[in-house]
Design brief:
Helix content is 22%, strand content 18%. One of its GO terms (molecular function) is rRNA (uridine-N3-)-methyltransferase activity. This is 25S rRNA (uridine-N(3))-methyltransferase BMT5-like domain-containing protein.
Length: 267
């Protein structure tokens, strides 16, 4: 809600400065914080792919009011709880207590063959945060190729699960090697088009923490993914229904419209 501010008099006379008086230095204005873009609405049927410790799933239910969430991970339940002990157990319990669906052992490249996903309704949003194949190779070129193959297979498997106006949202870190993946081209190659991209702001999801593919760091220290610059890309089927209003919402859940939103980038 906008704050009411007193209007300053534009033509108010200025007091003459005294000879030799020093000018009062002005404090630099603080940069205005960007309002987070949330690429879903609370009432959407949402599929989360490749969850780590399920902290993101918990956050969108708890803080954004999402009520129809299917959260999936690649690991088995036993392996997941071992890797992300103790928070994964707590997050999953919260989701199940809230009536949300949690599925284990779900391959992002074979979503369209998963019986549990195929038997339900189509999804308005399929969201994959920070996909990565893990440490398959120390060679950068091979890692890039492996991750490109992952995304292409994911796009192809996720598309049949989309509603007519549905969107696929993928978040990646900024900079190399992630920019080398050329995610926009990968989407186009699989029959998708980019609706928009925007800065991913982790603090828009209270309680969310980036989970490493290998699991928790002993002692809890080290690198934190949520502190890195990241960007989300929103895709739709080529020639699909207009999803401009669906592709972004503000924190309050209202639809967000800006000039030039369609097929554009936001900082």
């Amino acid at each position: 809600m906008a704050k009411h501010k007193k209007r300053k008099l534009q033509n108010a006379p200025k007091k003459p400065s005294k000879p030799g008086a020093k000018a009062t230095p002005q404090k630099p204005s603080k940069p205005q914080k960007l309002e987070p873009t949330i690429p879903f609405h609370a009432e959407d049927r949402i599929l989360l792919v490749g969850e780590g410790d399920f902290s993101f799933a918990k956050s969108i239910v708890e803080n954004h009011g999402c009520c129809d969430v299917t959260a999936t991970c690649f690991d088995s339940q036993v392996h997941l709880f071992e890797k992300y002990k103790p928070q994964a157990v707590e997050h999953v319990k919260y989701l199940e207590d809230e009536g949300q669906t949690v599925l284990y052992g779900v391959d992002a490249t074979k979503l369209d063959n998963n019986k549990s996903l195929k038997k339900g309704e189509l999804f308005e949003v399929v969201l994959f945060n920070f996909p990565h194949v893990g440490g398959k190779s120390t060679d950068v070129n091979r890692q890039v190729r492996f991750n490109q193959e992952l995304l292409v297979s994911f796009f192809r498997a996720a598309t049949p699960l989309l509603s007519p106006s549905g969107t696929i949202v993928v978040s990646l870190f900024e900079g190399e090697p992630y920019t080398l993946w050329n995610i926009r081209d990968l989407g186009r190659h699989t029959g998708l088009e980019v609706v928009r991209s925007f800065k991913f702001q982790a603090d828009a999801y209270p309680g969310y923490s980036h989970a490493r593919t290998l699991g928790n760091i002993e002692g809890g220290g080290g690198w934190k993914g949520e502190d890195r610059d990241a960007r989300s890309y929103v895709f739709r089927k080529k020639g699909g229904a207009d999803v401009q209003a669906r592709a972004g919402a503000d924190v309050g859940g209202k639809r967000k419209r800006k000039d030039g939103d369609d097929n554009s980038d936001e900082e």
